[in-house]
């Protein structure tokens, strides 16, 4: 006969292949612990298969199942020496749902089942606490009536409220033993009124009613919606767990507590937790009584006067420690354990992997390797890569009191405090006076780079996680909160408003870029520590990963940081960032405003030495590693002045008529600059720009050779290619300049020419483009924009609606979308087919996202490139991806 | 032995499978005519295979080849009774290149070969024209020296110039027989000086030198570049044609002329052409003498006094007519023939398909079917679909004198004259006063629709062939010249400037949208005639085509025109165009400016009856045919006022604070509106908009049923879908509204729900989207924009550079690009795999482009949709596509 009901201690369970499918997640875990010999309150599981039978059987339990249920109940009674309905020592039960995967709060639960008029008295006597017994009964009636009998909860609440009014008290706790007894009566009357029957005193009926209700709750509306949203098949069904209740509040030989097998905040290998004598689990959490420490050491360290468990119940403490040790050894991870002591007997109610801070995650993983509890591979898999981010940036001191005045997107991690400024110039001015500032802008543009550098943090009211502000801030390692629609900025009045505050220029605020919080005043921050454990985990990861990790950087400072974080070259050096430097921007503008090739050449020749020096510095820092240089990408109008004062200045400096400058600016205006005259399209129109840039690269190479720096091979990257002809023409240009430089300096230069794949057409026609490209670098930011037809600068207006409607599980600018991923796969396959040796990498923001890194590894790319501060995250994620293969 | 040299009259030639590959295009044609018995001056072909041998043989002709050449030469001499170098009747030859495909002007040609000191005298005697003989010799030395001996041309020109200076004359024609004799001497001296040898008097050497030079010119730089640009393999090589020269200027029994087998300007089946007695071919073309008509009829009709060929040489005229008849019957097409009469002997020098006007193309095709010369299928293939365009629009009277003041893109065909206006309001004002206007704008926006309707033509200085102005103008059938960068518009002064002109508001100009010309003043136009021949060809096309042809239309007027042109339903009804109507725009603005759902619903309820009426009218016109209604697509800010006066007006009308209106406008501003909050993204945020639109559609259906109109099934199209979730949510919305309406009116409504595929992600994930879509309509405009990452509004800035650099053969917004095409194929295949019954069509601008229609046919789409005026073009192109399969 097929088994539908399983006692927790059924031996075979552990050999089940898919025990969770049959027993549900909760049941499988309880059963596992029971079988391992942990003191788990006894119970049994009605399997998920019964759920299906239940629905087929006209939503009722069949005779065989009922028979089995009572057979298993008997075993519990024998085990505990308690009996359902016993007048002296009544057994109480919990009846809970338990699907394959956790569906928190979506299905029904009934506690304290087994109470009726008689057993309530027995419970009162046994605990010497009739108030507790009456309150338990009152709660049980309310819960059971709601779940099983379908009586709306508010009707019970009304009775309580009226009773309190009549008695003239405010709180439930003001009600005494007799009051609660009266309420029990009133509740029973309500049930009779509503159902025309007495509240069931027959405890067997109570049990079967509860079991049926849990099965019925599988098809409740909220469960259906939850399943739909989480793509859980309705065929799975739920199991039902029937378990004996234990009480930590039956006297002073009782207790209840929560304990971690290691210290979750610093990772130290010491038991850490809290407990209360003669209490229920919720008392520990609720904060009505101050919990006591578990260990003597913790008690002493925090100078508490209350006895630790180690002191008050030394024997049980030892039992607990032994159990904790066993649990950790078995699960090979730090455990978060709930326990109850009922009349000197220890019960383990639950165990699960404990949440921990990023820092302790690293420490615990390293320690467990030392303790030979886990392997290095397991240690690597144990750390959530994105959690490393917080280790690399200053964080808020969580002990400080803070007042959050608004929220935004956590665009760039870290915390910073400073005076509010509304312009980049002001940020720079105050920075020169050694004052910390937070730059607050509606949105930022490339003209704000100097201000973003000068400020300690950036706050914008518009733009998503991949807006200009967010991308640049992450690149610079500056904390940033972006797209905070809760603040309203008024540049003219130099203020910003939140719902309740008005912040003036000069006021001090703190931003928490890891959580997207905007906080009033200054908050202490904690500096990051690159501990020995951290670097140990990194070196293990490096041993396993195959993906190379490069960085996106165009400044010596960033390049140095990236190298310290372990970057193996530069995957994206955005040369346009070099154009905004104060010394250069005028020449850039001269070039753009020129009407003749001659004048343009003149301006470019002024830029050449600057670019050359940039490259020399970067090549030196990256000695031995590849450096991918992307030639000029953004549309020219981004470099032009915006307001009339600036226009006047520029006109004066360049000896031009300001009207002409305005005309040129309006000529260069674009409806959709993202899709405009940029990237290699600029170089098709004005090849001299790329010629200058290539010359700067090659002359830098020659100079590095002269100075005997370790050689690097630059990878010259052509942006925004969509056709074979474009890459062909551009490659010819690069090679032509290389030959000129080689001839002039009589020295050979080595380099690669490749392209960004950032347009769907480039992906689709990759076989043609690969004829001329030695590498592809997937520009996933733009590729996502064009594949979806979504501008990331504008997406903040509807992204929330999209997340709310579950159209996006996750912002596709954060993790590579599967449609975009398909294009990357198509391009990779077509590229490799044409050119076996083609180098493949990605350089979009996704290069630092663990999920995307897994995708890159699976797709067979050679490297990912990310902002300097994401390099360690990427190193770890790349190792995990490899280990998962 | 393998044959390398072929006499024109070699019988086997016609049985060669790929005669052009061996003989070259020119040689194959001359040989074909010779074999058919036409009087072609005799000659022979040195095959393309010799070219390869020539290059392998160190760029020289081998002995066997040389031997064969002289063997074939002998045959010509016998045939004509003339001999190379003969002192009385010398044979003169032309030596020309002839590759597989025509490479006009890229390789070398030598005429009059066979002249030396002796034969020149013979030629003088024979023609009684020593000036002609000396001039021929002089020209021959110059040509031969340039091509074979490598002496630069300018050196000969210098000698001529100096000679004229010394003699004090200006023109070459002022030089007499003796002068030319002197020049011959000077030329020969130059040759001796440069080559250290005499100019070759040995005519065999002349011949071999010329042949070698033609082979060498296959590898000349210009030939190489031309091949590269046109993807002609260098392995093909060229053939060389050696042919005897004939002269129409050897006396009064000589003549030369050009003749068409039918009248090319009206298509009538009558010989039409011109000739001159005692003249060379170039005299007919050059216009120094007025040519005479070939037929008596033509002479009489044009009241000429000069004798027709029919009168002056009646016998030869008859011979010519017989030959023309034979040529047309053989080639089954109207021929353009060059002939020469040398001493009463008729020679046919060339025949080719004659160029003709669109109107005559149609007439000739229909006539030839009647004459049983060609089949209906052939007739359909004979007409260039895009040429029909000119038949459907007014055209400039080509007899008028015109002054083109600037050029732009031929954005919408047809011609129109009117007063220049710079605003849509002014166009409307003048239209109300019955004045014709040309609306001149930097670019147009949806707010200009009323002005574009009111004006007779549209001229813009920005935007490409698919800019707003161009698309809307084509849809309306208004002529339009777009993106004319040669004009500079100054709105404030109400003028526009060209290089040489300043045009003020009120000045009259004419635009020619078929050729992109802007013309000063008014020019007569000719109205189109939809002749019987035209409709006959259309009905033949309809018999063969399988693709359905729909139209893009949202007004009753356009829908009627499209029906008249044969449209089989509407493929794209852009509901937003209905929003700009004066009566409605205020409600639209109210909706957008609303902060509450209630206020928004109120505004929408005002729009509902208007939309319903629109649909009733359109459904009535399209009775029995499908109508695809696209729900609101553009971003909301397109509907908002732009200047401060308008803002004030709107604020007043809606009882709002103008500051609030401004704030809302700036909130709605987008960086890249093309990639912004539009399409179904709007409906995710504000579902009430689509709900209103669906209700309008369904209520219109109910009303049509009530009025007993022939039923139509609307295809409700959701724009800008990129994910399965979007189409799912939208389909649910449509069905919900349908159920509501069905319940309210107690009547069933039938409809389909589908989506535009206009984003790469939608194409890539088509299998998921097809789960919910009953049809796909490819929105190739937006799909091209996103696939390439090119905004068509901004592309005019670099499109020219792209065409010049041959990156685009053709603007991808005109003909479907192959990368975009791959996405369409992917989507079609994935869509069909998921849903066999899925309807597929396209509704972008490409729907009216013949090349794209071929692609759609090949890809298995069910219909194309285009603007009303392109419907006949599409019908013909669809038939051709089917016939080519």
Structure description:
The structure is a homodimer of 885-residue chains. In chain A, strand 21 (508-512) and strand 22 (517-520) form a beta hairpin. Chain A contains 34 helices and 31 strands. By secondary structure, chain A is an alpha/beta fold. The longest helix of chain A has 25 residues, at 597-621. The first copy, chain A, is elongated and about 105 Å long. Chain A has an 8-stranded mixed beta sheet with strand order 12-22-21-14-15-16-17-13. Chain A is 46% helix and 16% strand. The interface between A and B is large, with 47 and 47 residues.
Layout of strands and helices, then pairs:
The structure is a homodimer of 885-residue chains.
Chain A lengths: L4 E3 L11 H17 L7 E4 L1 H9 L6 H18 L12 E7 L9 E5 L3 H11 L2 H20 L3 H15 L9 H19 L7 H15 L3 H9 L8 E7 L10 E6 L11 E6 L3 H6 L5 E2 L2 H6 L7 H4 L1 H18 L3 E8 L2 E9 L4 H13 L5 H7 L12 E2 L7 E4 L1 E4 L2 E7 L2 H9 L4 E5 L7 H6 L2 E4 L7 H9 L3 E3 L5 E3 L4 E3 L4 E3 L3 E5 L4 E4 L4 E2 L5 H13 L3 E5 L3 H9 L5 E5 L7 H12 L3 H25 L5 E4 L13 H10 L4 H11 L11 H6 L1 H20 L7 E5 L5 H22 L6 E6 L2 H5 L1 H4 L5 E4 L1 H9 L7 H9 L13 H17 L4 E4 L7 H10 L3 E4 L4 H14 L1
Parallel strand pairs in A: 14-15, 15-16, 16-17, 24-25, 24-31, 25-26, 26-27, 27-28, 28-29, 29-30, 30-31
Antiparallel strand pairs in A: 1-2, 2-5, 3-4, 3-5, 6-7, 6-9, 7-8, 9-10, 11-23, 12-22, 13-17, 14-21, 18-19, 19-20, 21-22
Helix pairs in contact in A: 4-5, 5-7, 6-7, 14-15, 14-19, 15-19, 19-34, 20-22, 21-22, 22-26, 23-24, 26-27, 33-34
What's a concise summary of this model?
The structure is a homodimer of 885-residue chains. Helices cover 46% and strands 16% of the residues of chain A. Chain A is of the alpha/beta class and 885 residues long.
